[in-house]
Amino acid sequence: MTTQATAPVGAAEQKELRRAFSLFPSGVAAVAALVDGSPVGLAVSSFTTVSLDPPLVSVAFGNQSRTWARLREVRQLGISVLADQHADYARVLAGPGDRFAGADWTATPEGAVHIGGSVLILSCSIAELTTIGDHEVAFLLVEDVRAQSAVEPVLFHRSRFRRVTDHM
């Protein structure tokens, strides 16, 4: 069954909704690939696991994203779940300008770009795209995985990049 979201949201309501959504902490991932021989990528907080069999993850991209428009045409995407050491780099990756200046990155022969020192590194191909609301959701088939369990992730919470601390 497919449903359509139809209730329009005004500008004031969007601001409040954005603030409310920011209360849910999430990891930060770089989605990147080589485009015309140069790294192209962006930071996302919408990365999530979907399935083990087949191995699938998903990422939601804003319909207006020019970066996603370039990335959606490549053979393979790199997903790098950023580590706490990447907190400052996450700001660069989320902003305008050269997002890879000074970054420790490598590329696979298929063009997936990975950020060194990340908690989790995946090489993925696009399995399916679905547009809903103001985003396109990409379901990605995981083709390769590398993980570093001793490294802590950087988090996005209340519109800020944060480090994990254990207060329990």
Total beta strands: 12
List the uncertain runs.
Answer: none
The overall pLDDT average reads 88
Radius of gyration: 16 Å
Major β-sheet strand ordering: 3-2-6-9-10-5-4
Q: Hey, roughly how much beta strand do the residues contain?
A: 35-45%
What is the H-and-E element order? HEEEEEHEHEEEEEE
- Report how far the terminal alpha carbons are from each other: 42 Å
Approximate helicity band: 10-25%
Work out the helix count.
Answer: 3
Largest sheet: 7 strands, antiparallel
Q: Outline, from the CA principal axes?
A: globular
Given the helix and strand composition, which structural class is it?
mainly beta
Account of the 3D structure:
The chain has 168 residues and is mostly beta strands. 15% of the residues lie in helices and 43% in strands. The protein contains 3 helices and 12 strands, in the order αβββββαβαββββββ. The strands form 3 sheets. A 7-stranded antiparallel sheet has the order 3-2-6-9-10-5-4. Strand 4 and strand 5 (56-62) form a beta hairpin. The longest helix is centred in the N-terminal third of the chain and has 11 residues, at 11-21.
